[in-house]
Amino acid sequence: MLLSAYRQGVFPWFSDGDPVLWWSPDPRFVVFLSELHVSRTTRRIVRQRRFRVTIDTAFGDVIRACAAAPRIGQRGTWITDDMIGAYTTLHELGYAHSCESWRDDQLVGGIYGVGLGRMFFGESMFSSESNASKIAFTVLAGHLRRSGCELIDAQVYTPHVSRLGGREIPRAEFIRAIAEQIAREPLSWSPGELDPSVVESAVADELAED
């Protein structure tokens, strides 16, 4: 059901104790990776390698940390035990993925979502240290663009992702885009450490302001 929903531009979002609610916002908030913006400060943090960034090495830890992370204006979380189980199954099947930021051997930030074809559908992020989730997202975006991905679904507007180049597009345009992208050859998701240099080769020519 989850895979069918994502293929149609639909995702689950609800509060613990509520029935499962399905959403397809109009407009849709996305990041075109050709428009990725990275500030000078973020580039400097990436170059200094303050965080070690990996992919698919701690999916369970990331999704549980996202479930536990406090959200401004929200009570509880939609990432219930059932949802954790469902997305963990998708991960085991090769559809759900995580990107992790580490300080030494401590997980300090990350993002998880669903990959179909050449699309990545971002679900949730967490950070227990300043900039940790931003670096995970930025390095992942650079890696995805270099791998042939053109679009990340960010679902609904957030200032955090907006500063990285996110913008809203009409739902009809989003549905057309995902139909095209998920029909393409799937991205390769090989667990391991990501090279931070992917950021420099992936960002838009004009530097974003700090």
Mean pLDDT: 90
Q: Compute the separation of the termini in Å.
A: 41 Å
Structural class: alpha+beta
Q: Note the quaternary state here.
A: single chain
Return the CATH topology: Aminopeptidase
For the record, the CATH class is: Alpha Beta
**How much helix is in the residues?**
25-40%
List the uncertain runs: none
Helical element count? 8
Major beta-sheet overview:
8 strands, mixed
Strand order of the largest sheet: 9-3-8-7-6-5-4-10
- Strand element count: 10
When the domains are counted, the total is 1
Name of the CATH homologous superfamily: Leucyl/phenylalanyl-tRNA-protein transferase, C-terminal domain
Judging from the principal axes of the Cα atoms, what is the shape?
A: globular
Write the H/E string, N to C: HEEEHEHHEEEHEHEHEH
Q: Could you say what the CATH architecture is? A: 3-Layer(aba) Sandwich
Strand percent estimate? 15-25%
Radius of gyration: 16 Å
